[in-house]
Write a structure and sequence with these properties.
The complex is a heterodimer of chains A (236) and B (118). Chain A is α/β, with parallel strands linked by helices. Chain A has one domain: TIM Barrel (Alpha-Beta Barrel), CATH 3.20.20. Chain A has 9 helices and 9 strands. In chain A, helix 5 links the parallel strand 5 and strand 6. Helices cover 28% and strands 36% of the residues of chain B. By secondary structure, chain B is α+β, with helices and mostly antiparallel strands. Chain B has 4 helices and 5 strands. The radius of gyration of chain B is 15 Å and the shape is globular.
Chain lengths: 236, 118
Amino acid sequence: MFFDLNIKGSSLENNIKLAEQASEYGWEHINFSYNQNDFQNALKLKDELNDSLNSIISFDYTLEIKSTNINEIRKTVNKFRDRASCISVIGGNLKVNRAVLENIKIDVLSRPYLKRYDSGMNHILAKESLHNNVAVELCFKDILRSYLAPRAKIISNFRDIFTLYRKFDFPLILSSRAETIFDIKTTHDFVSVFKQAGLNDDEINKSFITAGDILEFNKNRKDLIFKGVRRVNDEA
Amino acid sequence: MRLKVLPPTLRKNNRYLTLDIKSTFPIAKDEFVNIIWDVCIRFQGECMTSNFNLWVMKFYEIEKTDEYIRYKSIVRCQRDFTENVRSSLALTYKYNGKAISITTVGLSGTIKASQKFI
């Protein structure tokens, strides 16, 4: 199943257009991402969006936190944890990368390589990611919207992350971060770009499964008493 | 004098990609040929692109909206390099400073079969 956990959400009309295009190109679930300032307003659109996209594609919301202040990130996560199906934090700053990967309440560290000369990941962060089950997200749009030397450097950063991924097996997800219908590609094209970057078929499939698992895990998060123990309603 | 046609075993094996193109400006077929060659050479390099055997077979205008003009095209490439061509074409986003998007919606072994994606 093809999941895209990061499509940039905006107005209702634009969201519908993006969702219809994504559905036409083979995507089965998308998450519209909003930052902490817009998320509250976006929740109000959810019912209308649900009516429009009911039979087209399944969707949900991602809270995308953009901040370099670790305390602010922690407070925002605590505030929105019950209302968002996925919480991601934009990386790039080493302190943010580390704080996010150590916080079990966060689902995704988005783009740890952003505005950096390296991948923003090392073996210690990779172990933290695995230990706290915080996924690392790589965005297709970063390759799409760059060219020549910057594109080569981003692909090189991806390869560094793939090397750590193969050794430590932390959760890795791939997303498009599409803003307009020009940024949405067919699922096969999306897969073939990441294949060219150095992933193989199994690893790409696993990344989609990881994305699905995050959504599934967060559906049951309120029943989670502590790690490994969950309240169930099954009387048998 | 024309060259004699190669026997089937010595011919290159082709695949036909059906492309969905959205652009904010009108494109002619010749311009489209330039776009796909440029993007392949930029992403894969000259040496790799020489293997692709690229050829634009068909080019149709499908619809015009306020936001974009939509075209569909059938492009020939060599059998073992379809993934390389697809990924290169998917990474097109601008031409002469104007927005364009190309994505592959179908892959087939004959032109006739690829018409069903149009």
